[in-house]
């Protein structure tokens, strides 16, 4: 079990130096003034590893605690081979320490090379004592796991070949006036699993105070106590809690990482900015991003590691995948001959040697900021420039930083307290570190923000060729090198796995919608951008919903502009709390350790009891620490209880692997105790089930390649989706039919290649369209040009016909290009393809008749006429369908069809191309074959339709809908102030819309993998989502993440309702299919009460005046919330009502309960004052089953499933409650209505099944 425990602050501590005999010989040679004494060979003199106590010690120390340190010293000597435990000589003593116990060094820590790294410049005896100094090490094992070392060097005097101890040297020097002839260096090396550079530096600085000469305690005893204390200090869990402990005379702070995916930062991130100019910093980052062979040089060993580590942190979340050795001793210089990528560091004295001996090295001199390549290189290694716009933003922001602490101190009073000075400097450094993190993250984001546009998530494909084409010519050398690296490959894996790391969070905060085509707004901004001439972007896929929104809807964040970049400056550092660790008392025997852990637990328990329950972030960290300490003490059940509390406070830090190992090692007696506690039994079941269900994550990334073999339909669908052209399967099927006209039903590689290339070439041509301001002013901001004709003669003049998603216009030619509107698609009345006589020729001509103009537009399109005829008719039909159904997705689909038609005609080049293209005219065929008349009532009531399945390969059922109003809280992000529409799709997917513009705000995050059954806004910052996996997921509405879960149900969670006291949410009730109802305290998430109803198949609950009404299949119960006493029961016991209940609504002010039953088209109205009488029935025409209902004002809106011409359809009935009469029948969906919700009683939103998968927005009258 000890192996499973997370590592503490210390992994190992070593004392390194020279043995007594060598020190004596060297000092004698030094006193004889032998010239050029060679460096001594350092060795590991002692190693201190945990555990530092044993069971025997507790008995021994009851009689004499002072014997502890001398009788059980855990140390050994080391030669060239791997050291073994053996009897140890003290530094001066000739006697042997008997019975030294055998110890084991952690298997992945190799002590063989440690002495050289502790003295990388060599170990030399000095004639005078030198100042103590510290440097830092990084070790990497074969799996890439890193371990960190902090080394403190100090000097001990040698007198007559002896190292004085116990104050003897001081006494003799006072009595006899002797001076020391020489000083020998020693090093204490602390090795940790975590990069706590500053904290361990402070710890070692405190240790060195006690290791100076003339102290009266033995050095090794001090080091052992020091190591034992560090071993007892745990590493804090990720989040807003730092640990602090006393290491006289300093207070040591152990910082936590910001979140589980973030690195620990315990160093000064501005060091490289002091050593290099911003442009040089970008050059170094480019060298790392392009995975060069890099060597840092400095005269300061400490700077080598710190600067290299800073650059690693600058690149987060990208990670260096290669050899990382920031310090090379002089014996290790041959490492730079390695042929693969690496990052190493060595002393500046070796600069010339390294430069001459190795080829193709990037040499970075920290001392003077120079960046050069090695002299053996045939040509100087070219370092490509970081993309221009990203570089300019980075340089501007770095130059605005305040990097000098002295300037910060000018206006402050002088501090007289060491602790106060330390905390003041730390606060300044933490603020600066946060600013630098934001700047470097923004740089990485600006460089790679458009990578996602070229990813296919379903097939895990990255289209690198098309991505490169979209880069500005000056930026392409950079991207060509970066795209080939392991770092970028890992970055792609993280994107495809939808990892929510720092990059993804920034993307979510900025809410970027990358435009598919250059909008008019983008063209206008580019016209005044000096980099416009060298920048070039291309569309990579069909237009999306955001690009085709109506003019009335504002466009939010359609592209990354400088204003958004500047907004990143306003991100403030998150507040953190400090927890003071109890004092560790010495001698460190078992009783003392037990006392320390007891104090630790008691201190944590007091802190937990004093924290308000709504501070769940801090509570989670305290529960985690208390669980960890309890586990260390062997209190496994207490530890499990604390870890179980993480589900309700912050599940992100739940230690799954640790808990699993705890469960596997539980003794039978404790396992039986755990099984008697429902919450622990549930925890054990969940953890072990998760272990069994674990599947290997698909981690491959494939670069897009054109096919080389013939393709059947299924393979063609996959290839088209991989290419990023279109995802919708039905559209791809039509494309397959078009490309195989007159051939076997398979597509050869040449046809696919021709189609793909024409598609991309057409995109590039349209991308280069440069509309003059006089034209742009006629177009909407969000309009894009999708198609341009050749120059043609028209009755409006000579020019090119341009098509946007909204209109056709003529781009006239001549002295100044001008704009002549042909028609919007909405105003088209008729489209014809005809011919006009010219001499003996008949010229194909396109005629467009519009509603608003008397003149008919004519264009002599010649060979393009038939294609434009098809395209205009498809757009016209799509626009009509879009207007009739209030669904902008139809025009989106029509536009996709038009672009595919164009590519098919361009690729096939045969006599049947127009016929082939007509296979894609989906809306035109629908218009001609099946005219879809929308009933007047439906058209008047329907306001808008939205598609939550945009970007998916097929529609998905809308299972649950929730509307949450906006709030004007100044503490919130701007995006949090807008109302939102939450939509639950299949397999735990949730899509969130901004309900002010109906644009997708958060495209698909997942909570579990089961069907979601209910959603409710419990309070302003929390949305609770119930699932068929019996879990309630709690979503933080600010971060849009799920950090908490409620696991007390044992069956499908079916419904959740909230009780309010004085308009404030006070309690929530949830029910599950097995009849369990749980009352929750909303602030603490504790169970207030739990009740088992005397029925199964509970489907929904409603709260009214302290009564909880529960709908099961067999009955409807009313129970009191005070004690859950049953008050009323409606049973299906009548012969003509044998179907189970499906859903219900309360109208208790009228003493009525309205119900529906499975498979029935009737509504039943029950009078609760006389339940023995039959209910009143309301029959719904053309209805197979009522699926959902919602009360709005004095109306009941009912969603249903019906059949029309053998097909399932969704219908909504609006019933007047007073008259019990159907007022409206709304035909709004092509599949079953699955969900209904109300938006402030002004609108009703309905969601349909998987055949359609859309949301309709209806006006309430």
From TrEMBL:
<comment type="subunit">
    <text>Forms oligomers. Interacts with 6 of the 7 known isoforms of 14-3-3 proteins.</text>
</comment>
<keyword id="KW-0597">Phosphoprotein</keyword>
<dbReference type="InterPro" id="IPR043153">
    <property type="entry name" value="DENN_C"/>
</dbReference>
<keyword id="KW-0344">Guanine-nucleotide releasing factor</keyword>
<feature type="compositionally biased region" description="Basic residues">
    <location>
        <begin position="70"/>
        <end position="82"/>
    </location>
</feature>
<dbReference type="InterPro" id="IPR001194">
    <property type="entry name" value="cDENN_dom"/>
</dbReference>
<dbReference type="InterPro" id="IPR051696">
    <property type="entry name" value="DENN_Domain_GEFs"/>
</dbReference>
<dbReference type="InterPro" id="IPR057977">
    <property type="entry name" value="TPR_DENND3"/>
</dbReference>
<dbReference type="InterPro" id="IPR037516">
    <property type="entry name" value="Tripartite_DENN"/>
</dbReference>
<feature type="compositionally biased region" description="Basic and acidic residues">
    <location>
        <begin position="83"/>
        <end position="99"/>
    </location>
</feature>
<dbReference type="GO" id="GO:0005085">
    <property type="term" value="F:guanyl-nucleotide exchange factor activity"/>
</dbReference>
<feature type="region of interest" description="Disordered">
    <location>
        <begin position="56"/>
        <end position="99"/>
    </location>
</feature>
<protein>
    <recommendedName>
        <fullName>DENN domain-containing protein 3</fullName>
    </recommendedName>
</protein>
<dbReference type="InterPro" id="IPR005112">
    <property type="entry name" value="dDENN_dom"/>
</dbReference>
<dbReference type="InterPro" id="IPR011047">
    <property type="entry name" value="Quinoprotein_ADH-like_sf"/>
</dbReference>
<dbReference type="Pfam" id="PF25570">
    <property type="entry name" value="TPR_DENND3"/>
</dbReference>
<feature type="domain" description="UDENN">
    <location>
        <begin position="69"/>
        <end position="502"/>
    </location>
</feature>
<dbReference type="Pfam" id="PF03455">
    <property type="entry name" value="dDENN"/>
</dbReference>
<dbReference type="GO" id="GO:0031410">
    <property type="term" value="C:cytoplasmic vesicle"/>
</dbReference>
<keyword id="KW-0677">Repeat</keyword>
<keyword id="KW-0853">WD repeat</keyword>
<dbReference type="Pfam" id="PF03456">
    <property type="entry name" value="uDENN"/>
</dbReference>
<dbReference type="InterPro" id="IPR005113">
    <property type="entry name" value="uDENN_dom"/>
</dbReference>
<keyword id="KW-0963">Cytoplasm</keyword>
<dbReference type="InterPro" id="IPR001680">
    <property type="entry name" value="WD40_rpt"/>
</dbReference>
<dbReference type="Pfam" id="PF02141">
    <property type="entry name" value="DENN"/>
</dbReference>
<dbReference type="GO" id="GO:0032483">
    <property type="term" value="P:regulation of Rab protein signal transduction"/>
</dbReference>
<dbReference type="InterPro" id="IPR015943">
    <property type="entry name" value="WD40/YVTN_repeat-like_dom_sf"/>
</dbReference>
